[in-house]
Amino acid sequence: MYDKLQKDGTKEDFGNVLKSKVIKYDIHNGEIEVDLYLPANVHTLSSLKDIPVRQYIPDMSFQTPNTNFIGSIEDYIPHMTWTASAKVHGRHFTTFDGQEYDFNGRCSYVLARDYVDGNFSIIMNYLGTQKKKLILTSHQQNVQLSPNGKVSVDGVVMDLPYRSSEFEVFSDDGYVIIEGRGFQVKSDPTVNMVDIYLSKWYFGKTRGLLGTLNHELYDDMIMPNKQITSDASALGYAWQVQDRC
Questions:
Q1: CA 225, CA 179: separation in Å to the nearest integer?
Q2: Rg (Cα) of the chain, in Å, rounded?
Q3: Which of 37, 77, 119, 179 sits at 20 to 30 Å (Cα–Cα) from 137?
Q4: 157 has which bridge partners?
Q5: CA distance 226 to 237
Q6: In a 3-state reduction of DSSP, which class is residue 221?
Q7: Distance in Å from the first CA to the final CA of the chain
Q8: Which stretches are transmembrane (predicted)?
Q9: How do the residues of the chain divide into helix, strand and coil, expressed in percent and rounded to 5?
Q10: CA gap 123, 188 in Å, rounded
């Protein structure tokens, strides 16, 4: 840079700038006096010639770091797949953790419920010998599957397929399938069979006749009062929806 100034004759002009000095500096009285040398011979400021300062500054380039290696946020969210299943085949129950027992009721019972966030409840209503109605509730809707395979939403019978912000209901190979937030119910009312699948997000968040979904068998027959029983009848009575049937 110094050599460039010397070649175009500007070196001497810039050297004069170093002679500039402050003569008076009285900030309280608002007086500032400066003896200023300009890098050019001028009689007025309006006649000051342009000084190409930019050509004396070396080029500097900046490279933005590549952050593509971070990837998308979706890469760090686990895919929601059905990881646990339970079933009611006739009077035989199998919980999400694999506990098995037999129970035959006469009322309405909670099969599974999200007791943390209340996203869903699955209730089985016994209507007599070998006849059961499934009732699924969410924050905003109620879906019922009758023994004859009819589906009603909030009391209105619906044709399949049906879809809303809360539920999706459709038939597939003789089964009626109801899906909601992280759960799926697959039922064949003609043979009195119900399979329930829950996503991994409900680990440790469920209660009901189908257990706790925590990979532990010992507490699958836990009652609402947090007492554990080995008596299927006592368990059923504890998860009964109505006091009387």
A1: 29
A2: 40
A3: 77
A4: 152
A5: 14
A6: coil
A7: 98
A8: none
A9: 15, 35, 50
A10: 16
Task: Report the C-alpha gap between 2 and 156 in whole angstroms.
Answer: 89
State the Cα–Cα distance between residues 215 and 222, nearest whole angstrom.
Answer: 14
In the chain, the DSSP E strands lie at 21-26, 31-35, 82-89, 92-94, 100-102, 108-114, 121-128, 131-137, 142-145, 151-153, 156-158, 162-163, 168-172, 175-180, 183-188, 193-199, 206-207
Summarize pLDDT for 145-179 with one digit per residue, the tens.
988 889 999 989 999 899 998 899 999 888 999 99
User: For residue 172, is it left (φ>0), alpha (ψ between -120 and 50) or beta?
Assistant: beta
**CA angle, residues 88, 187, 180, in degrees to nearest 5:** 105
Which of 176, 100, 191 has its CA nearest to residue 143? 176
**192 conformational bin, left if phi > 0, alpha if psi -120 to 50, beta if neither:** left
Of 133, 214, 116, 131, the closest CA to residue 178 belongs to 133
Look at residue 36 and give its three-state secondary structure: coil
CA distance linking residue 32 with residue 211, whole number of Å: 85
Strand partners, 158: 151
Residue 56, pLDDT > 80, answer no
So what's the pLDDT on residue 93?
95
- Side chain identity, residue 234: A
Contact 184, 193 (CB under 8 A): no
- CA 139 centroid distance within chain: 17
Rounded Cα distance between 187 and 38, Å, is: 92
Mean pLDDT of 122-147: 86
3-class SS of residue 6: helix
Instruction: With CA atoms as reference, report the closest residue to 228 among 242, 213, 218.
Output: 218
